[in-house]
Amino acid sequence: MVNMWAITHDEAICYDPEVFKPERFMEGDMSIMGSDLRLAPFASRRRVCPGKAMGIATVHLWLIHLLQNFKWMS
User: Which residues are recorded as binding heme (predicted)?
Assistant: First the structure.
């Protein structure tokens, strides 16, 4: 069993861990395949979040839908 609290509260991995900052997951290059400890709250391999794949697919679908249907103006 992995101590997720200790990993997500380690300042070497997650700066300012006591503050709610969802943008920390959008900064820099990050591997979504489970090797980056910043994604530890979503787990990895067999114990991965069951909604992770659906969430990533949904974001891609929303982005495609936005690009196809939005009326872009310059």
Answer: 49
* 20-66 pLDDT tens trace: 877 776 766 666 665 666 666 666 566 667 787 888 889 999 999 99
Q: Is 66 left (phi over 0), alpha (psi -120 to 50) or beta?
A: alpha
- Phi first, then psi, for residue 45 (nearest 5°) are 55, -125
Residue 50 half-sphere exposure toward CB, CA atoms < 13 A: 0
Neighbours of 57 (CB within 10 A): 10
49 is in an annotated binding site: yes
What pTM value is reported for the model?
0.37
